[in-house]
């Protein structure tokens, strides 16, 4: 059985849109796409009068080299969100098919499914936020086409072992596409499972330049999967998903000097994460700091609402995650610069001192 047998049959036979840039390129006088012949004013818009390459060759090659895959195994879009949306649309028939998620987890899996009118089946994480493999596999009904695994998990920060991911992949061969979201993997001790795509055609990986590569505003995300899955996704992608300035920013970030800078920052984040995880529990307002392999910490507080407001009053914005299952007393704190992290600790210390004096 081919992994494409899991996809919607009408998508497999769909005639994709053929953009002007796909049909012709390399000429000197471009009069085929109804673009403006004049460039916009200002350096920032240089070249923006022309439509960009839908899948820029230089960017594909740079990312393929970074991730150790073939360019045919790679789709690049507007963040991981676009890849999630395209996967759901390609594999889930409205009103018939379903996805499986493990709450608490990234919310866009369920949002994309509900937009498509696909059912969302939940197989909650264990109480320590580890993956319950047995519960997950038991939740995979015949209608399930996609199973999303987030590692390290957002919002808990806990990673899934490669052995658990492979166990899920083996069990779901021919039944569902296993989508492993590695948005935070650069910060983890747990290695990527990208190598699995060569052995399991029904495994796909999500990666992003938003976190470790400091390009959240450029919206560059990747789907890494078998060449057949990538070809299917390219059938339904928008004509021009990647703005030229974003591609330029990504190529600069992926240059040798850009990669050196990213690795330095990743090292700082990992060091600061260790410091924050050691110091935060010493504060009287903190109940627990959850283990994390991401660039954030989920922290349980005696009064999370009060802490949130105190930090906000000091100009520090953290994420209120109390709505997530099992995290009703928690805030998510991104690891910032050493000075920013020190400021968080100082504000919390001051707030607790004032509260104790009162």
Automatic annotation (TrEMBL):
<protein>
    <recommendedName>
        <fullName>Histidinol-phosphate aminotransferase</fullName>
        <ecNumber>2.6.1.9</ecNumber>
    </recommendedName>
</protein>
<dbReference type="InterPro" id="IPR015424">
    <property type="entry name" value="PyrdxlP-dep_Trfase"/>
</dbReference>
<dbReference type="InterPro" id="IPR004839">
    <property type="entry name" value="Aminotransferase_I/II_large"/>
</dbReference>
<keyword id="KW-0368">Histidine biosynthesis</keyword>
<comment type="subunit">
    <text>Homodimer.</text>
</comment>
<dbReference type="InterPro" id="IPR005861">
    <property type="entry name" value="HisP_aminotrans"/>
</dbReference>
<feature type="modified residue" description="N6-(pyridoxal phosphate)lysine">
    <location>
        <position position="211"/>
    </location>
</feature>
<dbReference type="InterPro" id="IPR015421">
    <property type="entry name" value="PyrdxlP-dep_Trfase_major"/>
</dbReference>
<dbReference type="GO" id="GO:0030170">
    <property type="term" value="F:pyridoxal phosphate binding"/>
</dbReference>
<dbReference type="GO" id="GO:0004400">
    <property type="term" value="F:histidinol-phosphate transaminase activity"/>
</dbReference>
<comment type="pathway">
    <text>Amino-acid biosynthesis; L-histidine biosynthesis; L-histidine from 5-phospho-alpha-D-ribose 1-diphosphate: step 7/9.</text>
</comment>
<keyword id="KW-0032">Aminotransferase</keyword>
<dbReference type="GO" id="GO:0000105">
    <property type="term" value="P:L-histidine biosynthetic process"/>
</dbReference>
<dbReference type="InterPro" id="IPR015422">
    <property type="entry name" value="PyrdxlP-dep_Trfase_small"/>
</dbReference>
<keyword id="KW-0663">Pyridoxal phosphate</keyword>
<feature type="domain" description="Aminotransferase class I/classII large">
    <location>
        <begin position="43"/>
        <end position="346"/>
    </location>
</feature>
<dbReference type="Pfam" id="PF00155">
    <property type="entry name" value="Aminotran_1_2"/>
</dbReference>
<keyword id="KW-0808">Transferase</keyword>
<keyword id="KW-0028">Amino-acid biosynthesis</keyword>
<dbReference type="InterPro" id="IPR001917">
    <property type="entry name" value="Aminotrans_II_pyridoxalP_BS"/>
</dbReference>
<comment type="similarity">
    <text>Belongs to the class-II pyridoxal-phosphate-dependent aminotransferase family. Histidinol-phosphate aminotransferase subfamily.</text>
</comment>
